[in-house]
Amino acid sequence: MARAAGARGRAGWCGRRGRCGRCGRGALLAFAAWTAGWVLAAALLLRAHPGVLSERCTNEKSRRILAALCQDYRGGALAGDLCEDLCVAGKLLFQRCLHYDRGKKVLQADWRGRPVVLKSKEEAFSSFPPLSLLEEEAGEGGQDIPEAELLLMVAGEVKSALGLELSNSSLGPWWPGRQGPRWRGQLASLWALLQQEEYVYFSLLQDLSPHVLPVLGSCGHFYAVEFLAAGSPHHRALFPLDRVPGAPGGGQARAISDIALSFLDMVNHFDSDFSHRLHLCDIKPENFAIRSDFTVVAIDVDMAFFEPKMREILEQNCTDDEDCNFFDCFSRCDLRVNKCGAQRVNNNLQVICDKIFRHWFSAPLKSSAVSFQLQLQLQEAVQECADPGVPSGNTRRDAPSVFWKLRRLLRATLRELQEAEK
């Protein structure tokens, strides 16, 4: 009897332990699923908003960064045509921190009464790998460095940034010269600048395009560009148009039409006027600004690529088309070889129509001066442009026709607005 009771007790305990074990395993599985869900959510959040982990932008830290830059300048480690104004003469004055983004520092300053932006991919000059030739050569002022070898290294760094082979005659913007006692600092600074793709793009394109910012000068690893108010999704018209002259409705409608035409001009320019097509893979209002004459300017080209480099970026392994999306630049997955196609299947115009023009032309313009029929045609053209609905790979074939249709309709809109003012 006692043995039976003991057996029942052990059986009961074992049963309870089994149930507890199953409960424990269930709890562990539930916890693992919960954790995986949060990890996935965090990954999606970071992909959509990579700036959420960006360092906090403060004026105090920005001043410390520039103070360190000037200390390196006084020590002879770096040079640049803006260093004297920044570090000695007090003619380049820090104003405020604009933003920090994954190491990149963007600061607003006043240069001899002109608002400018100081940019660098990294905070400290020492963050950039030094030029090996400077490390190897011990000659005073670096005069023993062979010019041909230096030219070869500069060309290689430019090719790495742009994905293009440039002739020696095209390397002028990046040639340091051999002037004065600060030549080693100039060369070290140039090397830090060449490791920043955006600086290389701006330097190359500034004399070729009205749609990019010119480089105004540099000091060490920081370079200066013109300050223009960036667009923002918080602006009703995406760009600050508060001071547009003319009637409130008609003035804004004219401005939007002019800006849209300038976007079309930029698209055509980037597609046709260089030796290779220039792809914009991060199209959003924040990456553009508008001059007073409504010219669109690309103020952030960290995600711009010429065709050869674009093909290199897109041609990756994949299991579906989603794996072939590089921000705003899409390719297709060839499931036979699990490889993304090297050719982009959408284009700059399509993304601009989707992310910019839809905002303006999906609803009637704020002006009764534009006929309803013309507004409807413009809405339909923007819809066709943003979502062409053609088989993959054919968007380029149809892009010219929708481009000219949009241009014709926008010019007709401007004519009607101008007629209404007479």
UniProtKB/TrEMBL annotation:
It is a single-pass type II membrane protein. Keywords: Disulfide bond, Endoplasmic reticulum, Membrane, Signal-anchor, Transmembrane, Transmembrane helix. Residues 18-178 form the FAM69 N-terminal domain. It comes from the Eukaryota. One of its GO terms (cellular component) is endoplasmic reticulum membrane. The keyword Coiled coil does not apply. SMART domains: PIP49_N. The chain crosses the membrane at residues 26-46. It is found in: Endoplasmic reticulum membrane. Pfam families: PIP49_C, PIP49_N. PANTHER family: DIVERGENT PROTEIN KINASE DOMAIN 1C, DIVERGENT PROTEIN KINASE DOMAIN 1C-RELATED. Belongs to the DIPK family. This is Divergent protein kinase domain 1C. It comes from Macaca mulatta (Rhesus macaque).
